[in-house]
Write a structure and sequence with these properties.
Number of strands: 0
Helix content: over 70%
Distance between the termini: 42 Å
Shape: globular
Radius of gyration: 20 Å
Strand content: under 5%
Order of helices and strands: HHHHHHHHHHHHHHH
Structural class: mainly alpha
Number of helices: 15
Length: 270
């Protein structure tokens, strides 16, 4: 029994390594495009400039250094939690490219996970270059976070990516019933930007809006990992527990919709 488990684990490890290396090589071919994607994720830096000039942060009791750290941490979190799976999945479903994936001994969703992780790895040097430019232009904005906080933030960003991936996968499964399911994902963009803490620290929101945000998964996608990386006082165990709860809530409908959708799938356009 133990021998079979070891053999199976070894097989899964080899499969994951091959999948990641293949997608990483593919992403390197598109590194210019990924650089543009990284540049397009500067919304937190823009919001930092807006908040610095407004003086609203001081009125909310947030110091200038805390504001700088929060938005720079949000910039980093945003870079490594981007999910674009629905656009790729919609094209695969409509053009019939999903069909050969269904015949292989690997759940097709793992291919999209590997593609995202490979894209994030390809994005690392571009994000490092952008932070270097920020350090040269405005060295006061940067700080050295504690190594333990960096480690926790990396784990939190992986969890935030998983949460966003599950949420978008649920919407992507609608591609089995609609040719334009990606349009529905755009409806999620507004609450994501507003309730995640992307455009403003959640502590600056009115109490009612803050309570509304806490009832959604969006603060776990940006606010929690960003505050961890920024070194702010945060309930670490509670934050990870909330992320685990949302993942546990989103996974069953994701799998159910996948099974129902595959039964309906007819390889349209193949």
């Amino acid at each position: 029994m133990a021998e079979r488990l070891r053999a199976r684990l070894k097989q899964k490890t080899r499969m994951a390594r091959v999948l990641l290396s293949t997608h990483y090589a593919t992403m390197l071919e598109y590194r210019a495009e990924i650089a543009l994607w990284a540049l397009s994720g500067v919304l937190p830096l823009i919001m930092l400039g807006v908040w610095q000039g407004s003086g609203a942060a001081a009125a909310a009791g947030i110091s200038a250094s805390s504001l700088n750290h929060y938005f720079l941490a949000t910039f980093v979190v945003r870079q490594f939690t981007v999910v674009w799976m629905i656009y790729e999945f919609e094209r695969d479903a409509l053009e019939g490219r999903l069909s050969p994936f269904l015949l292989q001994p690997l759940h097709p969703l793992w291919r999209y996970v590997a593609a995202h992780l490979a894209e994030q790895a390809t994005r690392v040097p571009f994000v490092a270059l952008m932070l270097t430019v920020i350090a040269l232009v405005a060295p006061d904005l940067l700080w050295w976070p504690e190594p333990s906080r960096v480690l926790l933030a990396v784990v939190a960003m992986l969890a935030a990516f998983s949460l966003r991936f599950l949420l978008q996968t649920i919407v992507a499964m609608l591609c089995f019933w609609s040719e334009r399911a990606a349009a529905l994902d755009r409806l999620l963009l507004i609450p994501y930007l507003f309730l995640s803490g992307m455009v403003a620290p959640l502590d600056t929101y009115p109490p009612g809006v803050r309570r509304l945000a806490d009832l959604t998964p969006f603060p776990s996608m940006v606010n929690f990992p960003a505050r961890l990386l920024a070194g702010e006082s945060v309930d670490v165990a509670g934050g990870f527990a909330v992320m685990a709860l949302w993942c546990a809530l989103l996974l069953p409908p994701c799998l159910l919709l996948w099974r129902a959708g595959v039964r309906r799938y007819s390889a349209m356009g193949a």
